[in-house]
Amino acid sequence: MTSRRDGLEQNYEEIAVIGNGAYGTVYKARDLKNDGQFVAMKRIRIQNTEEGMPMSAIREIALLKQLENYEHPNVVRLLDVRHTDHTASEIRLMLVFEYVDQDLSTYLEGCPPPGLGPDRIRNILVTSQGTLKVADFGLARVYGFQMALTSVVVTLWYRAPEVILQAAYATPVDIWSCGCIFVELFNRRPLFCGQSDIDQLSKIFDILGLPPEDDWPENVSLPWNSFKAVPPQPLEQFVPEIDNDAKDLLEKLICFNPHRRLSAQEAMNHSYFRDDLDSLRTSSSLSVSEGESFETDGRSDTPSKHGGS
Amino acid sequence: GESLQKEKEQWKSVFHKKNGDGHMDSLGQHRDEAISWILCLNTKFHFTPETVALAVYLVDRFLLLVKVPSKYLRCVSICCYYIAAKTLEEDEVIPSTGDLVKGSDYECSVSEILRMEAVILNKLSWNIKYVTAIDFLHIIHSLLMCYYPQLLNGLSNM
């Protein structure tokens, strides 16, 4: 497949395969038009049907392009979209992203990737300057309807309970995931490692305790009483290095009831972030783009200090 | 519908100012034609005003970038409409390409539509989410309703 080239792709020279999935392949490549700078080249193969470009592809790429207008420092740049060729059986798209050399898991482990295991946070990247960048926005999910089961498990660990329960859900699910990743920054391993939907919920309740029946979403197939009533455990037992501010934030991020979970805005205003944001503001940057927000705290010197770069 | 019509007229003037040169006339004419086809398509498929506005915008952008021979104009309109629908409409109401072609009463093949779709996406560099006039209307409308709620009463008396 790599032997096949057409005119448009000669701008990019593939160096190595970074990732592989049902949706296609991601390469590390050189942009020959731009001094050979590194890029991440994602080749996507979509089955060509009578419907033309799939809706999911149109929406995702349109969204990425729209986000591009904001040039957010914590979003990975989309440099180019190429519709490389169109055969009767296949549409081939090539998305060219800015190249970032490590994902968060690698960063936390402080070692080069030992092959892509199932336990990776692959779409949060860390640049060599320590800037966090979000990549992907579910592109993999969109393109790979039959993706390997492992990736389903990956997201399962960060999945909010209302999603697992198949209740109504909205943006609070992202805050839940943030809470899970927040813990991981301290522990350098995931908090809730369920093997199945039910197991995931049990693991959550083992720590948070079974929520009161009033908080249980309505019209879900799993009844509240199918879980053992267990009391909540103190969080510091599972995140030994956490301090009081961080613990308070965490409790509000992984709150079972999505209505009572913090909003992103509220979380940003939490006292845990205040010092960091103030120091960033005085250094004439309003964004959290320094990526240091989790580690510049004098309160705890735990997370990320082992990261290599 | 009416507000859409109004917006369309306002838009055209912007469009003309931008292109106040020789080929302006044919461009304006082309555009009118393309837009009327989109409106015509929408009498069949009944998509939201947002979709229609986006389709119009895509046509505008594409015509600015590419000199389109008049025989392809209708194909461009259909494709922009299709792309706008795929971007904004609910999955289950999106017609298959075959149904779209049938509904458009236009003599062209499914593969022609699909090829054109690819050309348009590429030419617009996939910049296909725009803030359209409809979005502004929504904002202005909600502002009005916030500050002059008595207007609502007036409406219901009408």
UniProtKB/TrEMBL annotation, chain A:
PROSITE patterns linked to this entry: PROTEIN_KINASE_ATP, PROTEIN_KINASE_DOM
Keywords of the record: ATP-binding, Kinase, Nucleotide-binding, Serine/threonine-protein kinase, Transferase
Annotated InterPro entries: CDK, Kinase-like_dom_sf, Prot_kinase_dom, Protein_kinase_ATP_BS
Keyword Nucleotide-binding: yes
Name of the protein in its database record: Protein kinase domain-containing protein
Highest rank taxon of the organism: Eukaryota
Biased composition (Basic and acidic residues): 296-309
Residues that, per the record, bind ATP: K42
Region (Disordered) location: 284-309
Pfam families in the record: Pkinase (PF00069)
